[in-house]
């Protein structure tokens, strides 16, 4: 969910000085157009596991069509600068959403990374109390106002 530019970086973990041992990805690899999944790991981990067999199959891994679509998708993300674009648009959207929400009755905060943005709905903005009970249907009312 946090991969392939959504957070304004190739992977969400890239925001910190972390290098994961294993990365698993699914439909984001092909932008959801074709089922596909993969797992990748560090060379050190592979060298440790390989003698016993590096079995990492997903339902849609090892699929030629999925691999071709994933390759095209990754190339498009890279060549068109879409990861950087996600970061730029995310900053602008977060800023505008934050400005728009200042007078909103139930918005406690707007936060996120890249185009992965969340709006915190609260019962009491001044005290930032948790969201009101579902029976009040605040989300639906806010959505109608945005339409």
Description:
- The strands form two sheets. A two-stranded antiparallel sheet has the order 1-2. A two-stranded antiparallel sheet has the order 3-4.
- The longest helix has 20 residues, at 82-101.
- 35% of the residues lie in helices and 14% in strands.
- The protein has helices at 43-49, 64-79, 82-101, 138-146; strands at 22-25, 38-41, 107-113, 116-121.
- The chain is of the alpha+beta class and 147 residues long.
- The protein is built from four helices and four strands; from the N terminus they run E-E-H-H-H-E-E-H.
- Strand 3 (107-113) and strand 4 (116-121) form a beta hairpin.
- It folds into two domains: 12-80, no CATH class; 86-146, Aspartate Aminotransferase, domain 1 (Alpha-Beta Complex), CATH 3.90.1150.10.
Count of alpha/pi helices: 4
Mean pLDDT: 84
N-to-C terminal Cα separation, in Å? Answer: 26 Å
Q: What oligomeric state do the depicted chains represent? A: single chain
Based on CA atoms alone, the radius of gyration comes out at 20 Å
Q: What's the total count of β strands?
A: 4
- What is the helix content? 25-40%
Question: What class, by secondary structure content?
Answer: alpha+beta
Strand order, largest beta sheet: 1-2
Number of domains: 2
């Amino acid at each position: 969910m946090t991969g392939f530019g959504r957070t304004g970086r190739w992977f969400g973990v890239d925001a910190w000085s972390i290098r994961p041992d294993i990365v698993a990805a699914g439909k984001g690899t092909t932008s959801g157009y074709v089922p596909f999944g993969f797992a990748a790991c560090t060379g050190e981990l592979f060298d440790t596991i390989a003698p016993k067999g590096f079995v990492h199959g997903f339902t849609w891994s090892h699929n030629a069509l999925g691999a071709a679509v994933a390759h095209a998708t990754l190339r498009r993300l890279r060549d068109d600068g879409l990861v950087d674009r996600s970061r730029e648009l995310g900053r602008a959207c977060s800023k505008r959403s934050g400005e728009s929400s200042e007078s909103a009755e139930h918005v406690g905060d707007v936060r996120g990374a890249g185009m992965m943005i969340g709006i915190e709905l609260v019962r009491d903005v001044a005290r930032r109390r948790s969201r009101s009970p579902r029976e009040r249907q605040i989300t639906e009312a806010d959505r109608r106002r945005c339409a």
